[in-house]
Amino acid sequence: MKNSELVLYLLSCFLLHLFSSPKQSTAYVYTPIYNIAVDCGATGPQTGPDGRSWTGDDSKYAPTEQSINGQKSISANAANQEVDRVPYYTARVSASPFSYLFPVTSGSTFIRLYFYPSDYSKFNRSSSFFSVTAGDFTLLSNFSASLTADYLQQRVFEKEFCLNIDQESQKLNITFIPFPNSYAFVNGIEVVSMPANLYYTGENINYIGVDNTYQLLTNSALETMYRLNVGAGSISAKDDTGMFRSWDSDDSFLAGKMGVVPFNTTIHLQYSKISNYTAPDEVYTTARTMGTNRTENMMYNLTWTLEVDQGFTYLVRLHFCEFQPEIQKVNDREFKIYIANQTAEEQADVIVWSGGNGIPVYRDYAVTNNYENPNTKTNLLIALHPGQKGTTRYADAILNGLELFKISDSDNNLAGPNPDPKFSPPNQEPQNQKHPSGGKGIGIIIGGILAGVVIIALIGFLVFQRRMRRVKDAASSDAASWRGLFSFSTIKSTKTKAGDSHLPSDLCRYFSLAQIKSATGDFDPVFIVGAGGFGNVYKGYVEISGHSTPVAIKRLNPGSQQGVHEFKTEIEMLSQLRHLHLVSLIGYCDEDREMILIAPECLKKYAEIADSCLNDDGTKRPSMGDVVWGLEFALKLQESAEERIKTGWAPKEKQHKDIPTDDSLMDGDDVFSDSVVRALKSPAYTTTTTTSRSVQDSSTTNTTSFDSENFVSGAVFSEIGKPEGR
């Protein structure tokens, strides 16, 4: 952004704050039929930070329980209480299912669930995985509040849903179901009625990319993904129109230029097209536009980037109101609207929709993102662009507010995948530190890119060569087929060995079978990310020094060709693997004749990048920018794993020389295979496997997911792993 644009933007924000009229926090334009706020785990009446009344769940809203092995829910206090007291200091926690039953009237209702991931009594923060149902709908499944909070970089958060209560039942049952060897918790629950036609309008909605229209029926449930006050600050729940909705600022969702933020707090809004409870007045008296520079405006889009779950249909609601005095007539400001890279409106004109200045309106759209990679996340882009010269007086566009809702699928499901753990970026150089001067800096960048191209090309050649060999001898292949990572869990390990283990005690960590079962939901198929003749591979997260480290958990079949001796040899060799840029085996389990290995995930990323570059569909191959990002992410995974293992536990190290290129390491087997063990008996060795990822940037979405039986090993990865190779 140019300095002049930045100054103009900051000045607009300052003036908006300076001259905004005081909010009327008590004069709600909508009064809910019922307004229930339960502070879970608390006793008696409570008062929230905004003055709202809450009640403890020792009241008529006390939960009912389905005790398992005598375990009942408890009221627990958060270990860390650096948050608002209500509703986050206390929680209802249980290793058994528990339910809340609310008496309500028929019609549409909001459900809000409040979460503060913390240690509660004997329950660890990262060990909570559970599902939530409301009536016939699944709201959350295999849900990790700790992973979600870490991803959002927030200590506390809420999840909002909308559904309909039928005339016959007039009650709402919300049930929390923990996964095996895990627990469920909730800090607060809100149940608030809404007007029947607020979102379930019964109107035909413009279905983006589809010839037919879409109709949102009352047999569908919604999850609120985003609710943005465009061009201004956040609006708290108490300043909503009476339904206690929170509106966030859109600043952090903008991609590229931020435009300008006009406002008009003196205008008298006329709600002749929509109800006055649709959104607070502030939404319609502030906005974001592109500005007055016609030439510059024609060269870019005003774009918002919103991360969503794939495989669902979404309701997009855009709020508009022309309040600037110069916009009074049709064609004064005409623009285009793009949703998910498709044209939603070729000639959008707020005056045409509203009939005049100062009249709020909204437009609803439905869009279904692709189903090729379910249980993954992608970016949904909403963009505005000025109309063509000659059709509009001002080459500009405007948006006042934005709401995005996920619509339940045919199975009445709203649950999406958990986010992957976020890694903080590498430390940046201080601002006053000297950087390479012009030509030299550019040369370094170009050289790095060329080196990356060469490395990826080499990896691609190795993958292709190995594939050709495997085609010729497919019958002898028994490699794993890695699939998309749908869910994961976290387990803690112990340094105490089982009494019946015959393995040396100084190799690596020992995990009990109970811990492995906890991480995999008692080997629930939902955690499987790969399978082969050797057995299944599960995705998990091992807690090392207080951090969650991604791992692959391989469980050998009793009928596998690999026996106890090979299993022991594999542990001995992999656990002693030590190299400047490699991470060794993390642990194993041999309890009850099981043969289970726990290995780091970091090196799998390298082979995944190579495989994605060879996708048969050219449109699905990553760009060079995506490749560089992927390599950086893989390196970060590796560095994080190295650091956590160093600080947590380290076995005796075995040093070795630089790793040469060895055909014996490129036989297509995975990190756990016999051939790798054979290769490790030589002075040089390194292994890697593949998994799936999602690559996104601020302007485009390029999601790559694949099934592969391909695993690449060799010196090339040790070269990529060197920090100076970046």
Automatic annotation (TrEMBL):
Endpoints of the signal sequence: 1-27
Membrane topology: Single-pass type I membrane protein
Region Disordered: start-end pairs: 415-438, 686-707
A Pfam family of this chain: PK_Tyr_Ser-Thr
Residues annotated as domain Protein kinase: 523-726
Main location (coarse class): membrane
Pro residues bias spans: 418-428
Keyword match ATP-binding: yes
Domain of life the protein comes from: Eukaryota
Protein's recorded name: Malectin-like domain
The organism's taxonomic lineage, starting at the top: Eukaryota, Viridiplantae, Streptophyta, Embryophyta, Tracheophyta
